[in-house]
Amino acid sequence: QVQLVESGGGLVQPGGSLRLSCTASGIIFRSNTMAWYRQTPGKQRDLVASITTAFRPGYAEPVKGRFTISRDNARNTVDLQMSSLKPEDTGVYYCNAWPAFSGSWGQGTQVTVSS
């Protein structure tokens, strides 16, 4: 079955950086657009960034110019480099395919941006 394991979150001050990583198994990784999503309490899970099988990235408007998504098909990993972090970036970050494999979400990784 699909397994997604996220890591790299933490507490960071505004303006700081974090790098999230996700390892996927149980899928043909290279054949899927992969993505990072963010969820905050009481809100739906929103798409933050995606990267196609051709390595073409896409970003939600609020993170453009600050976040960089990358993938390594040899290692089945997708990373999210986050810079110039803002308090509104706070949330639990998940990786999944896009469209997402429903019912296959990992535990996510908490990112808290606060002074």
The proportion of residues in beta strands is: over 45%
Mean pLDDT: 96
- From the spread of the alpha carbons, the general shape counts as globular
Outline the low-pLDDT stretches.
Answer: none
Order of helices and strands: EEEEEEEEEE
How many strands appear in the DSSP assignment? 10
**DSSP helical segment count:** 0
- The gyration radius over C-alpha positions equals 13 Å
Question: Strand order of the main beta sheet, please?
Answer: 2-10-9-4-5-6
Structural class: mainly beta
Helix content: under 10%
Largest sheet: 6 strands, mixed
Separation, N- and C-terminal Cα atoms: 40 Å
Task: Spell out the blueprint of helices and strands.
Blueprint: E1 3-7, E2 10-12, E3 18-25, E4 34-39, E5 46-51, E6 57-59, E7 67-72, E8 77-82, E9 91-97, E10 109-113
Parallel strand pairs: 2-10
Antiparallel strand pairs: 1-3, 3-8, 4-5, 4-9, 5-6, 7-8, 9-10
Describe the structure.
0% of the residues lie in helices and 48% in strands. With 115 residues, the protein is an all-beta fold. The termini are far apart. The mean pLDDT is 96.
Structure in a nutshell:
The chain has 115 residues and is mostly beta strands. Helices cover 0% and strands 48% of the residues. It has no helices and 10 strands.
Q: Keyphrases for this structure?
A:
6-stranded mixed β-sheet, 115 residues, mainly beta
